Amino acid sequence: MHIPDGFLDTKTAAVTMGLAAAGVGWAAHSVRKTLPPRKVPLLGVTAAFIFAAQMLNFPIAGGTSGHLLGGMLAAVLLGPSAGVLVLASVLIIQCLLFADGGLLALGANIFNMGIVGTAGAYGIYWLVRRRAKGLQGQLMAAAFASWCAVVIASTSCAAQLALSGTVRWGIAFPAMAGVHMLIGVGEAIITTLVLATIAATRPDLLREEARAAGAPRYRGVIVYGLLIAIGLALLISPFASPWPDGLERVAGKLDFMGKAALHPLVRAPLPDYVIPGIGSPVVATALAGAIGTIVMFVFAVILARVVTRRTMAGDRESAAVR
Amino acid sequence: MHHDYLDRFSRLDSPVHRVPAWLKLACALSLLLITILIPMSRAALFGVLAALLIAIAVASRLPLLSLAGRLLMLEPFVLGVALLSLFQPGGGAIFLRLVARGSLCLFTVLLLSSTTPFSEILTVFRKLRVPAILITMLALMYRYIFVLVDEAERMSRARASRTFRRDRSHMWRARGDVIGRLFVRSTERAERIYAAMCARGWKT
User: Fold this and answer.
1) Does A4 sit within 8 Å of B193, measured CB to CB?
2) Which of A5, A34, A187 to mutate to test the interface with B (most CBs of B within 10 A)?
3) H-helix or E-strand containing B181?
């Protein structure tokens, strides 16, 4: 989901850079006020931990493998604001040392994965967590929220690509959201397994979080909520309106970039994309997303129950690691 | 993973390495901006930019082969996103534009990171009023990435040498265990680091 440089236009890069700066600034302010100084090294080391954890691959079918993204994990372990800072650090280091993810696109990447996928998803986690008790409830909330984190972050990413005139919304959204609905399942499973292990070895680390998150900080909810709402409104609203509108924007942009030669190519196949009766791929993807959310919620409940039972039973072949 | 893998070339000596970090950062940002603002109708300018970047690479006395190797290693990330654009009308032209731009930008960032030590970039960040806590985090992260990656590898190796079942669910649980325990170890390490920092007179 790292957007490389050269894929965003100046307008999108500038807007997302501003949003990311505001979000990271708020996170730093809030962490400075609430975090005891002895925890500051923990933030840096956790950022390195997320980076190292991303290098451990999980086998998926057919020789492919996936890895942890870690936004939700960091937010559950340290709280949303610290999670935003951790993810921002990971993305900055990946960009500046490994050239993974662009420098001009850094704002967009921090907004997608660091703010929408961490603070935003933490809001979902917190809402579900309030109504579910115990370790099982916590794991279930984390599983569900980490799936949501991956899906909404990828949607935001698709919107940025579309707004930049790089990939049309009608292609970017179904492709990105579709793939990430599957990747999100992996992320949910890994996050749950990791949290279960921590709960089994150092339950105090998770309880500390629960105490910190017990009292909701309404100002944080307002600031992150506002940032994400503004961001999504700016990024997605051009496409949420009836389909031809979004297309015209992109067509206009292509026109500007590629001069008149591209013109007939852009306009001609349009009707093919709106299939009567079935609707556009955008509607289909949104529908799939809605169904996927419900399925994922049920899956999260089952996953949490299975993992909790295993953790409680102590029947774990984990001694080898220690 | 060796710790100098991170920015192996950034401490070499050359005219480019001696340029102040803020200037290099500003130049890199303006080069990136220029690259994304070049219209496709002036494709020749991409060639000019590429020539400029190669000239900088030569002037900075970087080992060109390994630079090209890293560029190729990162190219799939550009191609992956660019591939999406092929599925739209007029996609061929957009695809070419994206690949050209993406590769040039990648080259620019790669040159920046291999001629500028990370600590100098952090100094620039400090002058730019980036929150102090974020800078502390970045500095600590830079220091501990290779420690934790090494630790993760050791734990995976230990796990692999003791586990004989190869079914997928078991492997996933084992991986989850390794990551969970890696976090516990990281927390404990962070506590030791804090004690060490305090012993050396660190204040927030």
Assistant:
1) no
2) A5
3) helix B168-199
Partner residue opposite B204 with nearest CB, options A4, A40, A68 = A40
CA dist B107 and B78 (Å) reads 12
Identify the closest residue of chain A to B41 by CA–CA distance.
A258
**A308 CB within 8 Å of a chain B CB:** no
**Which residue in the set A46, A93, A194 is minimally distant from B186, CB to CB?**
A46
Residue appearing with tokens 């500046």: A96
Looking at A47-138, which runs of residues are DSSP E strands? 57-59, 65-67
* Chain segment B48-101, per-residue pLDDT in tens: 899 999 999 888 888 888 888 888 888 888 888 888 878 777 778 888 888 888
Alpha-carbon gap: A124 to the closest alpha carbon of chain B (Å)? 23
CA distance A168 to A12: 15
Contact A48 B186 (CB under 8 A): yes
Q: Tell me whether strands A65-67 and A57-59 are parallel, antiparallel or unpaired.
A: antiparallel
Give the separation between CA B23 and CA B38, rounded to whole angstroms.
22
Q: Measured between CA atoms, how close is B197 to chain A, in angstroms?
A: 9
**pLDDT mean for each 10 residues of chain A (322 residues):** 87 92 93 85 93 84 76 90 94 89 92 92 89 86 93 91 85 86 90 92 75 60 84 76 47 45 40 48 79 86 84 54 46
- pTM for this predicted structure: 0.86
- Please state the length of chain A: 322
- Note the residue count of chain B: 204
What letter would DSSP give residue A56?
S
pLDDT average, residue stretch B16-42: 88
Report the alpha-carbon distance of residue B25 to residue B21 in Å, rounded. Answer: 6
Strand partners, A59: A65
Name residue, tokens 């265990």.
B177
Mean of all residue pLDDT scores within chain B: 86
- Contact yes or no for A44 and B104 at CB 8 A: no
User: What residues of A are in contact with residue B43 (Cβ under 8 Å)?
Assistant: none
Residues A157, A176 contacting (CB under 8 angstroms): yes
**Does the ipTM surpass 0.95?**
no
A36 touches chain B (CB under 8 A): no
Using CB atoms within 10 Å of the CB of residue A204, give its burial: 0 to 12 exposed, 13 to 18 middle, 19+ buried: exposed
Query: Are the C-beta atoms of residues A231 and A156 closer than 8 Å to each other?
Result: yes
A213 part of contact set with chain B, CB < 8 Å: no
